[in-house]
Amino acid sequence: MGLRGAFMIKMKLHGTYNLYYSILGMRNPMNSWHLMDSSEPDEAGNCKLGEKDLNLAQRLTLAGTEHGKFMRFITVCFDLTAPLYWWKEFDTYKFAEKNSTSTMHKLTSRELAPHDFSFDMLTDYRNDQIRHLNNLIKAYKSREGDSEEDNAYRKAVFRELVQDLPSAYMQKRTVITNYAELRNIYFQRRYHKLDEWRDFCTWIKETLPYAEELICLEKKE
To answer: In Å, how far are 98, 149, 175, 197 from 90, measured between CA atoms?
Structure first.
């Protein structure tokens, strides 16, 4: 038995987009574009927010989702590697598109190792699990013919492999979502009992531009 320490989820930000144009649209209801004081947009549509624009954005955000809908226009793209048990909770959020690495195509491409799983403790049982999965991968690769018998054998072995794969298996997905959905996630999950959720919420707050001012904004007492 060996203590490895928790395998924290990994995030890699690719970009945030359309901050300037979300503010431009935010001012449409009152035709108040002449009051914009943010800088001109860069190639990604982002800008430095002016004091007036930020003040209005915060007031609308705190007024509720129907008033703060400009947040849906600020998009974010990132890579996220996390265990399957975490992904099934993330999948409850619908305003996020995801493109994942494929267990169907790549699970049998190589032997599995402890770093492929989010195991806090590498126990004898878990080592046995990994050995079992690798034996199935070897069995799958041992029959590379195209006969009906070979295909049936590989299908049976692959089904066993997928069914026995622990929920701690790490999967990478590229995600695109928006500030409104991340705000929803932040306030629902920041104190979650799973470390992965708290780490993700910390990443949101510390990484994304104007996250503290918009995504994590709370009413003052």
So the answer is: 10, 39, 11, 9
pLDDT digits (tens, 9 = 90+) for 57-72: 999 999 999 999 999 9
Output the pTM of the full model. 0.92
Q: Label each residue of the chain as H, E or C.
A: CEECCCCCCEEEEEEEECHHHHHHHHCCCCCCHHHCCCCCCCCCCCCCCCHHHHHHHHHHHHCCCCCCHHHHHCEEEEEEEEEHHHHHHHCCCCCCEEEECCHHHHCCCCCCCHHHECCCEECHHHHHHHHHHHHHHHHHHHCCCCCHHHHHHHHHHHHHHHHHCCCCEEEEEEEEEEHHHHHHHHHHHCCCCCHHHHHHHHHHHHHCCCHHHHHCCCCCC
Half-sphere exposure of 153 (CA within 13 A, CB side): 15
Structure-token match 């199935």, residue found: 136
pLDDT digits (tens, 9 = 90+) for 196-219: 999 999 999 999 999 999 999 999
